[in-house]
Design a protein that fits this description.
- The chain has about 150 residues and is of the alpha+beta class.
- It folds into 2 domains: about 5-40; about 40-85 and about 100-135, Immunoglobulin-like (Sandwich), CATH 2.60.40.790.
- It is built from 1 helix and 7 strands.
- It has one helix at about 10-30; strands at about 45-50, 55-60, 70-75, 75-85, 100-110, 120-125, 125-130.
- The strands form 2 sheets. A 4-stranded antiparallel sheet has the order 1-2-7-6, with no helix packed on it. A 3-stranded antiparallel sheet has the order 3-4-5, with no helix packed on it.
- Strand 6 (about 120-125) and strand 7 (about 125-130) form a beta hairpin.
- The chain is elongated and about 85 Å long.
Length: about 150
């Protein structure tokens, strides 16, 4: 697969994610909107790519492993779950800034992958999803032959 050295869509997607995160934070902190913070949130994600794999790392502090669901359908990776912070409902809670509630993140994979070899690991509040690329999408070195 030929790839340009600069991909404007990567920058657009990153900008969109930052705007969404800023919007989510400002809405959840607006006066009289304390309940909105519990309706949903968007965990931060880092995505890495090399010749063999796509790796996604998602921060999910305070989320139980049993409350996380990872699905790959076609070219769409979906991660959903819920963080429950029951201590925020306590009458002793003076201030609650940690966001709780359900989350849903979807990602469109731009390359073919080996869906049957996708793995997910959860440790210390970080979900790591490793997605092996299909063999036909991996770069190959092409031998140049001499002409007479």
């Amino acid at each position: 697969m030929l790839r340009p050295t600069w991909d404007p869509f990567t920058d657009v997607i990153a900008l969109r994610d930052q705007i969404n995160r800023l919007f989510d934070e400002s809405v959840s902190r607006a006066p009289g909107r304390e309940g909105m913070a519990r309706r949903g949130w968007a965990p931060a994600v880092d995505i890495f790519e090399d010749n063999d794999t796509i790796t996604l790392k998602m921060d999910l502090p305070g989320v139980q492993q049993s409350d996380i669901q990872v699905e790959l359908e076609g070219e769409t990776l979906t991660i959903r779950g819920e963080r429950t912070l029951s201590d925020q409902d306590s009458p002793n809670c003076l201030r609650a800034e940690r966001v709780s509630g359900p989350f849903l993140r979807t990602f469109t994979l731009a390359t073919q992958v080996q869906a049957d070899r996708v793995t997910a690991q959860y440790r210390d509040g970080v979900l790591v999803v490793t997605i092996p690329k299909a063999e036909e999408t991996k770069p190959r070195r092409i031998q140049i032959s001499a002409t007479a």
